[in-house]
# Entry
Amino acid sequence: MIVKEKDILQTYFGYESFRPGQEETINHVLHRNNTLAVMPTGGGKSLCFQIPGLSLDGTAIIISPLISLMKDQVDALQSLGISATYINSSQTMEEQRERLKQVAAGHYKFLYVAPERFESAYFTNLVSRIRLSLVAFDEAHCISQWGHDFRPSYRSILPNLNKLKNIPVFVALTATATEEVIHDIQNLLHIDDTHVINTGFERDNLSFHIVKGRDKTAYVRSFLQEHKNESGIIYTSTRKQADSLYDLLSKRGIPVEKYHAGLSEIERQQAQTAFIHDEKSVMIATNAFGMGIDKSNVRYVIHYAMPMNIESYYQEAGRAGRDGEASDCILLFSPQDVQLQKFLIEQSQMDDAARLGEYRKLQSMINYCHTHSCLTAAILNYFNDTSSEYRCNRCSNCLHRQEKTEITQEAQMILSCVKRMGERFGVTMTAKVLRGSKDKKILSFRLHKLSTYGILAAYTERELIERINFLIAENVLSAEEGKFPTLKLNQKSVDVLKGNQPVWIFTEPIPTNEEVDYHEGLFTILRTLRKKIADEKNVPPYVLFSDATLRDLCRYFPKTEEAMLEIKGIGVKKYEQYGEIFMETIQTWMNEHPDVVPKIKVAHASVGRTKVRSTNSEASGPSHITSYQMFSSGKSLKEIAVIRDLSPQTIERHVFKAYQAGYSIAWDIFFNQAEEAAVLTVYEEAEETSLKSLKEALPDEYDYTTLKAVLVKNELL
Ligand SMILES: Nc1ncnc2c1ncn2[C@@H]1O[C@H](COP(=O)(O)OP(=O)(O)OP(=O)(O)O)[C@@H](O)[C@H]1O
Ligand SMILES: [Mg+2]
Ligand SMILES: [Zn+2]
# Structure
């Protein structure tokens, strides 16, 4: 049967083959099995009901939550010559009646409605008398109260729908569903386990980034500067935020639009159209914008503040890269974002159980902002309710946090402080105690009498808060649910306290040098070649190969047809036309530059978009030199560690590295002559010269720093 459907795919929609999950879903629907399809945003869910709708007799009814979404889909179908319509409150009664008449006469293959339509007896009556092909629940997570966009009507109309005996089959579609929501949808729509198609959530063209501790507007401005001709969305948490960011950017001549619920329907419509038609490249919006919008070339989605939960985040961020091209999803985090979200939860009309649920989701969102693990994995684990050690090699944690530092001791201090505080306080109070704050509250609770009071005084309060949040994110410490989460120890905390489990943090690697990662000389040559061939053929150069493809050629220097085909943007057709001449040119250049080594190709790594990286990292030169300069201006290793948000061990390494690179150090800060002599004697006499055995051979007062300093100075390390 699927032959016919494949035909429809090609003739109506112009696509060669099905995407993952489509064929299976369509098959189930054709066999009249109620089906749930969970596919990522942009995964192609619409075709899962549009193709069976075309293939089967009768009218397909699509229940859809938003008017704008219905209109888009109906327009798209009509432009393909398919009879489709919608009925909703944006139309006059007259118009609605007219369309219903046509529906009754069976004129439409597709009818889009909001769920509320089924509350009307007139409508259900009419529907009961026509021939139906299927009923689809688009954005089906709206049916579940555990979902993040619960629409009560999605659920309350079910009895009315169940009364209709002429519905052959239900199909439900969503991009964001936790296990809980999937079960809920299954129960409500009677869907067997075998008819749930879940293609997974990962979108391997999206790179997730967390940006912390930066001025948000400055960041946005510099980001937009670097991505001038690209289309993107900036989500804000409030209308006010959207308005002020809009004013700020439009004053600077940046082509922005805005969209939020405070604007009139017409204003919103205009903004959306300008954005979709690439007249304005940047859209600043609240979460009112975007559901169902099929703009394929959105290159980035920036969250100006942390959203309320991971479901919303992934859905909104997922509006980037629907065309499958590499795109960035950036979350700008600041601690105030948490306060705002708590405020919104408090304000909302919810019962206590629902509110607690929201707090639980918020905590997962906060954890996402503090984890040092792969961000893609964090999202996938959230939805799949599992935990895996997967690394995407694209997200900001995979890219930047590569240097491992042990902080077990520090973690133990924090945990034992939580314990001594009776597990009755939250993050901020704990940080204050560790830091030794003279806050009135601390004194009134007599927390300054604790043995852990002030044991981490070398850190700032902000840094301690960050560390505690990190421990929560890594589940080394638990935060109770609720508005003011108190900290509690868990099994992992106990393991850490007993010394059975080490704790690591990951920090940014020391940048070697900030050169581009492809060979610019060759790039220029290939560009010239491209221009020459393009001129001969009278086509624009990018029709041959994009800049990104040329850069890849200058990274990997492919030598064979096979290797050429591995480069993004080179298919068989392109290879046949231009492959050889480009390969020859590369080879000639390689022969002239025998020292150049090709990069190793990492599957899927979208490091081509390194621009985000460069805005993220400090511009002031190699990291170890920055540390060294601070050190020579008289700051201690610990102070530098606090200021730079790095561990003291890292700073120590930076300083020594600078010495090895030829910078001078006043060694008497680290040791005196007698100490140096003692270390050297032990070194000469030792059979085993590992740091550990040298340390053991020395008196206790010689710490690792002293030991290492002597070895570095004498070039023994
Ligand atoms: N088999 C296919 N081959 C190529 N492109 C496809 C295929 N199926 C769908 N597409 C295209 O992918 C894009 C996204 O499809 P669609 O709008 O159905 O996504 P979706 O899964 O409903 O996403 P969302 O969760 O955002 O609603 C559309 O432009 C669509 O035409
Ligand atoms: Mg959709
Ligand atoms: Zn990652």
Observations:
- The chain has a mean pLDDT of 87.
- The first strand starts at residue 35 and ends at 38.
